[in-house]
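Q: My collaborator sent me two sequences in one message, no labels, and asked for predicted structures for both. Can we handle them in order? The first one she listed is below.
A: Yes, handling them in the order given. First sequence, followed by its structure tokens:
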Amino acid sequence: MNDSLKGLYLKEVWAKAPWRAPRILKVTLNMGIGRNKDDKAFVEEAVKELTMIAGQKTVTRKARKSISNFKLRQGEVIGLSATLRGERMWSFLDKLVGVVLPRVRDFRGVSSKAFDGHGNYTIGVTEHSIFPEVDPNKVTKAKGLEISIVTTARSDGEAKELLTKLGFPFAKGRVS
């Protein structure tokens, strides 16, 4: 996001107390491996693709304990994550709002009900191939992705106002 948008938001809404203005702390990207945890080629492809999407190396998440009902053993890779801060976070958010979300078929806006009650927002993406870094011709299986935006907002209303000012296209009059 450009600095003029952030500055405009601070002047417009939080003129009396700019230090209390909500801001975005970090963006986390999470991808679950699920049933494909035993397929080494799938895991390597997922790591490569999430690394390209995030613009930095991803961290593999391993099971903490064994659960026999899920056929899960301790130490197996069950997911991937990347935490973006600073300039990478702002460039990712700019790309998400300007390029990625408009590429979604029949896009009518993101849900305004995906706040967690503490000012954080999470978007679920069913196919990661909407990102321009991923070549859809080379993708073997569609992978889901979760994008969590962590803010310092004290309420969901403040967080929604912040994200709206930063260009997030919330759905109007739609229940989702």
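Q: And the one she listed second?
A: Here it is, processed independently of the first:
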Amino acid sequence: MSKKEQKDMLILGPNPFNEKINHSGGQLTAITLLVNYLEQKNISYDIVDIFRSSFPPPPLSDKLKVSFIKYREVKRILNKKSYKGALIFGTHGLGYWEKLILSLLINSHKIKTLFFVRSGHFYSAIERKNYKAPIKRYLMNRLDYIGYQGGKWEELYNKIGIDKSRLVKILNWIDISDYKRSFTNKKVSFLYVGWMVKEKGVEELFEVIANHRDLDEYEFTFVGGGTLLDELKEKKEKQNLNNITFTGWLDSKDVAEYYHNTDALILPSHTEGFPNVILEALNYRLPIIATNVGGIPESVIDGYNGYILEPKDKNKLYSSIKSIGSSKELKEKFSKNSEEILIRNHTIENNCKTLFDLFDIKIKKD
């Protein structure tokens, strides 16, 4: 039998070199930055592309066919190569089971595995089932490590019954910019970026703006598209809410302009893993109003760099907007603290060090 080729890391997730991926999700962003970092540090890796378009959702038969193909692909790779560790990005639904089975396959080859579920849909599905997940608990406890993004994720895994010794906190990373935030005396503006769907809490945000006409002194911009966009546009016109702007989806350069020109980000989601928009807002040193879900409370601290509220809490959403909107000094304090949290929590160097230590990967000297 020929000797297997030795490499440092196997990554299962969307491949940044896949030209068919036409939107930048959280996993793709994380892997893109990770791959760049691995190449800078001369760390060898392979990627198995497990991207599957869900717009529109493919038939179940097609999903199962793709899952089988990926299983065979990983099996072929493991017969030829060995790795110090494998990072597997999990999702929800069938994608969760697909990645979990692949993780168990890799683990059976004596390769350390880190199974990293980042989907808010997985989080909310477990909550709806009252943490009754015996099969998930059994299979996940057979893996070496379970990655989580801080915040309420550890609490969720503890309630499921995941062995604490397997839990590894690795926060989202970002290419930190050298950005200086300044607040002027112009009209205060608030920004929402994301899908225009019920689960993102945009209906509650719209209702707060519509029902408190003292908020007319502020501007609110909604960047993104989705099933609620046309309905909310119609309501805006009927209620003559001239302080609301809907832009639809924009390219990254245009979104960056909105981050630059706004005073605070609002993300009133009902469920999240750890959304990229929080990272982006931190990178622009913004105050943030967000909900106490997923990994968000790890990096948005109530009264420190913004406000944390429970999902659908319209009273605190309103008071948080008023508090930030009425005080330049508070905005400046929150902005400074967002920068501190960004550097403390979200450098790729610190989070990759955790990953490399798990896999006994040594950074090679140039």
